[in-house]
Specification:
Layout: E1 2-7, E2 14-19, E3 22-28, H1 30-33, H2 43-53, E4 62-65, H3 69-83, H4 88-102, H5 105-113, E5 119-121, H6 124-133, E6 140-146, E7 153-161, E8 164-172, H7 177-187, H8 196-203, H9 211-217, E9 218-220, E10 226-228, H10 244-250, H11 262-290, E11 294-298, H12 305-314, E12 319-321, H13 330-343, H14 363-372, E13 378-379, H15 382-394, E14 399-402, E15 416-420, H16 427-435, E16 445-449, E17 468-471, E18 489-495, H17 501-514, E19 518-523, H18 535-543, E20 549-552, E21 555-557
Parallel strand pairs: 1-4, 4-5, 6-11, 11-12, 14-20, 16-18
Antiparallel strand pairs: 1-2, 2-3, 6-7, 7-8, 9-10, 13-21, 14-15, 15-19, 16-19, 17-18, 20-21
């Protein structure tokens, strides 16, 4: 059975194909059209996934879509009516896209890819839940989902057993921690749908001295539920998401690109603390209700790696699984898995333990691209390549690294990465100023050999997708200035030899030379751009930045 999973029309559009229960391809549209967080119908991602599956469009048995458009449309209309006349401009701007695309997916599928078969629409948060549990290693687990809003739900919890999921409780719009986090992200001068991670990093520089102000905006209840005071926010008017009461409580908003003050850091710290308290409260309640020790998380809120580890630290849950595309892109995966496992009733026999689900390129294709750009290169076998790049890193060179299939989700995990020496005290500044060209406070992550992680980090579970931030052991912090954040933590990626042997071998070679079994790993892109996909994308990014070395497959430039 061949199932195409889709998410699109809002942000981070994506596609995937499950073939007889195995995920054979998954990718976000932004990597192909080069529009970060692209909401477009993912025709390029679909084409890639169909090719990766080795099938034709005529071989598709079903398309799974990650939400119920008519149910969502009813919420949008009701919400605009409640806010009339202030919501009228936004209503008039958004209605054409609803009528042209969002309510006519079967027609759009026929127009764009010639598909006329069965389409299954899945509730948004059910798609999130399925994306977490049905590809997890757990036979039974509690499930929590949280994001801005789906149709009506903003957070849910439930239980997964075998190939079935039961949602036990929902929290509904406008009561949404995800929307509140995004609203205050824009208040702090960062962009919605991309700036939330910046706020998470900024929070470590501040103290939560505005927490009492934020607690006036959100009522956190003993059972884990919450209520947002709607008087503070404008979620549906199309202008700014925060209202005058937020400004009265917190002061004037920060203008984008302006100087960051201590107050801004403290507001970010307060927001992060509030979010942690809310989600930990839900998790404790879920554990009390289910008695399960294993937890699956999905939804954009759980791209917050600091929060994720806090849940392990502050609740009885012992293990957590978060798939790499935990935001809306992962809804495509959830829709496909739900159709195959839960609706069709097929047993689960796939675990997502490797995010390399996107395009890969042969050395012949790489060499063609290098020659087209007029670049000189050396071709090496895997062993010599790992040794050569390890030497470059020991010499504090910054390396662009493109090998194997592109990752699914927002994190580069050793296939589309920029690498550096974690012991180099200047690496963070060089990466931020001369390579990535981003804010100076932004931290960088370590990719560490799985079997050595506990020597350096107080990590409570495996973190293959860089979705847990844990304390760096105190005795190791001075050794690792490039990856130790100001609060002593690091967003850790654990690297296994069986899932990514090329990256593991490189880190091992670096360890042989430095004694440190990790490298700095950040996504291969410049500020405001998607992660690179093709050799041409990588070459273009390399030439516009200050990297010292570029690796494409088995070819090395510099």
């Amino acid at each position: 059975m061949n199932i195409l999973g889709l998410s699109c029309h809002y942000h981070d559009s994506a596609a995937c194909v499950m073939k007889d229960g195995q995920l054979v391809g998954a990718a976000q549209e932004e990597r192909f059209n080069r529009n970060k967080h692209s909401p477009d119908f993912p025709v390029a991602a679909i084409n890639y996934c169909i090719q990766a599956a080795g099938i034709a469009f005529a071989d598709l048995d079903c398309v799974g879509f990650y939400e119920k458009p008519y149910l969502k449309f009813s919420r949008v209309v009701i919400d605009h009516l409640r806010s009339f006349p202030f919501s009228l401009p936004h209503f008039l701007r958004t209605m054409p896209s609803w009528l042209e695309d969002r309510l006519a997916l079967p027609m759009l599928l026929e127009q764009r890819i010639g598909y006329r078969g069965k389409v299954v629409f899945v509730k948004h948060h059910m798609a999130h839940a399925a994306s977490a549990f049905l590809v997890s290693p757990f036979d039974e687990a509690a499930i929590i989902t949280a994001d801005g809003v789906g149709e009506w739900a903003s957070a849910t919890f439930g239980v997964g057993r075998a190939n079935k999921i039961e949602i036990l409780r929902e929290m509904h719009y406008p009561h949404s921690i995800g929307l509140l986090y995004t609203a205050l992200t824009t208040y702090l001068g960062f962009g919605a749908l991309g700036g939330e991670g910046k706020v998470m990093g900024l929070a470590s520089y501040g103290k939560p001295r505005f927490l009492d102000k934020l607690e006036e905006m959100v009522d956190l209840r003993p059972d884990g539920s919450f209520r947002v005071d709607k008087r503070y926010f404008n979620f549906n008017t199309g202008s700014r998401m925060y209202g005058r009461r937020v400004i009265a409580a917190l002061g004037l908003a920060r203008e984008p690109e302006s100087a960051i003050e201590e107050r801004h850091c403290d507001i970010a710290a307060s927001l992060q603390t509030l979010t942690e308290n809310a989600m930990v409260g839900i998790a404790r309640h879920v554990h009390d209700q289910t008695g399960l020790d294993q937890l699956c998380l999905a939804g954009g809120v759980f791209l917050n790696c600091v929060l994720n580890h806090k849940i392990l630290e502050r609740t009885p849950f012992r293990r957590v699984y978060i798939q790499p595309a935990a935001g809306d892109a992962g809804g495509a995966l959830g829709a496909a898995a739900l159709v195959y496992n839960s609706i069709q009733g097929n047993p689960r026999d796939f675990v997502l333990d490797d995010a390399a689900l996107g395009p890969s390129f042969s050395n012949q294709e790489v060499q063609r691209a290098l020659r087209f750009e007029g670049l000189e290169y050396l071709e090496m076998d895997d062993k010599k390549l790992a040794a050569h790049v390890a030497d470059q890193l020991v010499a504090n060179k910054i390396v662009g690294w493109v090998r194997g299939g592109m990752e699914f989700g927002p994190r580069a995990l050793g296939r589309r990465s920029i690498l550096a020496n974690p012991t180099d005290p200047n690496a963070k500044e060089r990466l931020n100023k001369r390579v990535k060209r981003r804010e100076e406070f932004r931290p960088y992550a370590p990719a560490v050999l799985h079997e050595r992680a506990s020597e350096f980090f107080e990590l409570l579970d495996d973190s293959p997708f860089m979705l847990l931030a844990a304390p760096v052991r105190k005795e190791k912090r001075a050794l690792l200035p490039a990856i130790t954040h100001v609060d002593g933590s690091a967003r850790v990626q654990t690297v296994r030899k069986d899932t990514n042997p090329e990256f593991w071998n490189l880190i091992h070679e670096f360890e042989r030379r430095s004694g440190v079994p990790m490298v700095v790993n950040t996504s291969f892109n410049l500020r405001g751009e998607p992660i690179v996909c093709t050799p041409h994308d990588a070459i273009d990014c390399f030439q516009r930045s200050d990297m010292g070395c570029l690796v494409l497959g088995n070819c090395v430039v510099g």
